[in-house]
Write a sequence for this structure.
């Protein structure tokens, strides 16, 4: 990490760094736009990030390509969601957290399907209790680098 | 119409630090876990399996390391950024579900359940939500006074049949538990007073509640009197309005390795002063006096020992890291003696006043121009980019004196490149 010395040029720093905190106001001619101003876009508000039950996780490898999810993608996981059918879920299958798709079979039984079809399905309501850690609600993917 | 009876809940997390580690590292769910203090010195938290293996609270790590390895116990250095974030999540869920809460420590909070129709059901749903949404196991004790709620919480954890929630608002159930609970488990009864109480034939919480209040006050003081009254169901300790701003702010840490030379100690002091000044600004205070301390390991009987501290007044109350640090470094020069293996230095900011509360001294030296804004910007950057992103030039990025944290887990909830990993 490069180190930075603190210089007493507070004013200039303030102008450059505090612009978003200190609201810039029109001092001359007022515009009706001032009354209709809205808050800017926020990914936090869109995804719910910041709420206690919303968690972020990171995709470690390319085993989720079958779901269109790439290595390094960030997933937003909702741990309060209860509807699981046709959702991507994060589960602990005994060897770390894994992402699976929940699907019902013809008889109504629920199965956990992996992105890679070679991986055998796991029954969700079977003998062995599988704990659902959360439901994936968003995929954050960087496509420009 | 009379006011409804007060109902308090005490909700506290089971083995909080260990549980935090387990939430983010599922493989630890199936193994006993302990968390170590700063510098990996001693055991400060144990999962129930680790407790069952007989690992003592406060046990020195180097003494129990081999035994723990044999038993398959996993040790972790304390990961405070993680614990603070999880604590915050827990507290926010509680605040959402209860009419009022008072955060008592990082892992426990008082809840106001006054007027709640079915406190036990609410306690259970809080417990279930915390387990599902955060993965934190908690115990809930409910009663008509804080002391009784705390005792109910103890019982909820001790007896599995309670399912982790115990409603002790009913006087008959209160008496039952009081007769069972040893007096040492009562909130506010320490080791020493418990021993003293035994000589008065007070062995259970019930004995204490029934004892003559006047005698208790005379022998132990008003605190014990209050405790006894609370056990009788008379609420004496209400909800806090929130703690007042701290009257002194201190930062002191052990060095990872002993330091004899002055330059690395100066670096450490600069880092501690930066942190203390940050806390000072966070509560909007200015400080007028500082105390710098330096010491060797005092518990070590053989070898040279030295400890000294100096108290100094700032020319004018300030919260500027640079002003405080300049004075602190002068103080360090005064107390430093070459040749000693120093283990710790400390800074204490005292004589605090709120910004704007005092009339500025006309004859005091003028503060540096733009100081207030600069410090605000520095705090803002550090909040966003991580502590130490902007720092005093003397503090190195990877200091030689830094605390040992060899088994530190990742910052799973506060850094995007360190969050929990998933696979297909």
């Amino acid at each position: 990490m490069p180190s930075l010395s603190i210089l007493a040029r507070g004013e200039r720093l303030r102008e450059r760094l505090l612009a978003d905190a200190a609201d810039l106001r029109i001092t001359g001619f007022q515009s009706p736009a001032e009354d209709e101003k809205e808050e800017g876009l926020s990914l936090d508000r869109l995804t719910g990030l910041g709420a206690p039950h919303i968690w972020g996780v990171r995709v470690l490898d390319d085993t989720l390509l079958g779901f269109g999810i790439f290595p390094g993608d960030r997933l937003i996981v909702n741990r309060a969601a209860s509807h699981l059918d046709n959702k991507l879920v994060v589960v602990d299958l005994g060897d770390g957290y894994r992402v699976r798709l929940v699907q019902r079979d013809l008889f109504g039984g629920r199965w956990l399907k992996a992105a890679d079809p070679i991986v055998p399905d796991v029954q969700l309501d079977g003998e062995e209790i599988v704990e659902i850690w959360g439901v994936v609600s968003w995929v954050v993917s960087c496509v420009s680098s | 119409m009379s006011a409804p009876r007060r109902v308090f809940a005490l909700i506290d997390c089971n083995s909080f630090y260990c549980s935090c580690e387990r939430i983010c590292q599922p493989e630890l769910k199936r193994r006993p876990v302990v968390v170590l203090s700063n510098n990996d010195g001693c055991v400060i938290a144990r999962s129930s399996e680790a407790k069952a293996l007989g690992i003592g609270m406060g046990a020195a790590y180097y003494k129990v390391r081999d035994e723990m390895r044999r038993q398959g116990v996993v040790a972790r250095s304390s990961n405070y950024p993680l614990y603070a974030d999880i604590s915050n999540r827990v507290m926010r869920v509680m605040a959402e579900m209860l009419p009022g809460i008072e955060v008592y420590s990082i892992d426990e909070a008082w809840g106001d359940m006054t007027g709640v129709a079915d406190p036990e059901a609410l306690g259970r749903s809080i417990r279930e939500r915390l387990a599902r949404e955060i993965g934190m196991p908690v115990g809930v004790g409910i009663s008509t006074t804080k002391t009784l709620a705390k005792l109910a919480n103890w019982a909820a954890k001790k007896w599995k049949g309670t399912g982790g929630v115990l409603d002790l608002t009913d006087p008959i159930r209160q008496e039952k538990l009081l007769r069972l609970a040893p007096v040492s488990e009562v909130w506010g009864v320490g080791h020493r007073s418990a021993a003293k109480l035994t000589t008065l034939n007070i062995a259970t919480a019930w004995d204490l509640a029934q004892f003559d209040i006047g005698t208790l006050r005379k022998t132990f003081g008003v605190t014990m009197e209050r405790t006894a009254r609370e056990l009788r169901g008379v609420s004496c300790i209400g909800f806090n309005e929130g703690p007042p701003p701290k009257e002194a702010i201190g930062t002191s840490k052990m060095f990872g390795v002993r330091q004899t030379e002055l330059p690395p100690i100066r670096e450490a002091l600069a880092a501690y002063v930066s942190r203390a000044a940050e806390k000072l600004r966070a509560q909007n205070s200015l400080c007028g006096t500082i105390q710098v301390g330096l010491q060797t390991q005092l518990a070590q009987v053989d070898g040279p020992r030295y400890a000294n501290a100096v108290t100094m007044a700032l020319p004018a109350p300030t919260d500027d890291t640079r002003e405080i640090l300049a004075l602190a470094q002068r103080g360090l020069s005064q107390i430093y003696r070459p040749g000693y293996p120093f283990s710790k230095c400390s800074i204490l900011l005292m004589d605090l006043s709120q910004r704007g509360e005092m009339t500025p001294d006309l004859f005091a030296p003028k503060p540096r121009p733009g100081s207030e804004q600069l410090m605000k910007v520095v705090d803002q950057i550090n909040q966003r980019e991580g502590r130490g992103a902007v720092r005093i030039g003397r503090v190195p990025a990877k200091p030689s004196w830094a605390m040992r944290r060899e088994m530190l887990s990742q910052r799973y909830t506060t850094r995007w490149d360190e969050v929990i990993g998933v696979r297909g």
Summary: Chain A has a mean pLDDT of 84. Chain A is about 10% helix and 25% strand. Chain A touches chain B through 45 residues (CB under 8 Å). Residues 43-140 of chain A form a domain with the Umud Fragment, subunit A fold (CATH 2.10.109.10).
